[in-house]
Design a protein that fits this description.
Helix content: 10-25%
Strand content: 25-35%
CATH superfamily of the largest domain: NADH:ubiquinone oxidoreductase Nqo5 subunit
Order of helices and strands: HEEHEEEEEEHEH
CATH architecture of the largest domain: 2-Layer Sandwich
CATH class of the largest domain: Alpha Beta
Structural class: alpha/beta
Number of helices: 4
Radius of gyration: 23 Å
Distance between the termini: 74 Å
Length: about 210
């Protein structure tokens, strides 16, 4: 039986000094919380979870990516200010900017102990020049193609991956189709037989008939 997630968290914290872990709730129907790990300790934590006898998470069943663009949240607060010589309570709106990042999620099972899943999350520094995470392929070989897919579609650089190259898009493709700010091209020059909406878009780029 899988240990409570709070115990897994405390065990990792005791085993890996300096690790930063947060328990994230899940509001979806599964209602299963996950562990958010700092990326500097992600590889060590994954290794520990696989090798420690009480856990033995020997199978990564699913690895997926999520794009979180920069966002701004607004909160209304009441503050005291002097208005026309008198102190009054007025309402102000505070805007908080959250930088964007990319997130990778691992679902782990133990085939040996028949428990799971344990869900791990890790985040990149940003969505641009610090979009990197350690590869967990050396720990779970089944993560190899899935990390390649996330690299291909989201742009996460998995450091230490044995064969990090595109798996769905072609080598010359410049963008990441699963990012939320991805702009779909309208010329479709790579489409050999455009039809329906694709054909209508392609016609906009055809030479004008003489």
């Amino acid at each position: 039986m899988l240990e409570p997630i709070e115990k897994i968290k405390s065990t990792l914290e005791a085993a890996l000094p300096g690790i930063e872990i947060a328990i994230l709730s899940n509001e979806a129907c599964a209602v299963q919380p996950s562990l958010l790990l700092d990326r500097d300790h992600l590889f060590q934590a994954a290794w520990y979870l696989r090798e420690t006898p009480e856990f033995q998470f020997d199978y990564a069943s699913n690895v997926t990516g999520v794009d979180w663009p920069e966002s701004i949240t607004k909160q209304k607060i009441k503050v005291k200010k002097t208005v026309e010589g008198a102190e009054k309570e007025v309402e102000e709106t505070i805007e908080t900017k959250r930088p964007g990042y990319l997130e990778v999620i691992y679902h782990l099972y133990s085939m040996a102990l028949k428990h799971g899943p344990l869900i791990l999350r890790a985040r990149t520094g940003n969505r641009f020049d610090d979009a990197r995470l350690p590869s967990l392929t050396p720990i779970w070989r089944g993560a190899e193609f899935q990390e390649r897919e996330i690299f291909d579609l989201y742009g996460v650089i998995f450091e230490g991956h044995p064969d990090l190259r595109r798996i769905l898009m072609w080598d010359g493709f410049k963008d990441f189709p699963m990012r939320k700010d991805y702009i779909e091209p309208d010329d479709y020059e790579y489409e050999p037989t455009p039809h329906d909406e694709v054909l209508a878009r392609a016609k906009c780029h055809w030479p004008a008939s003489e």
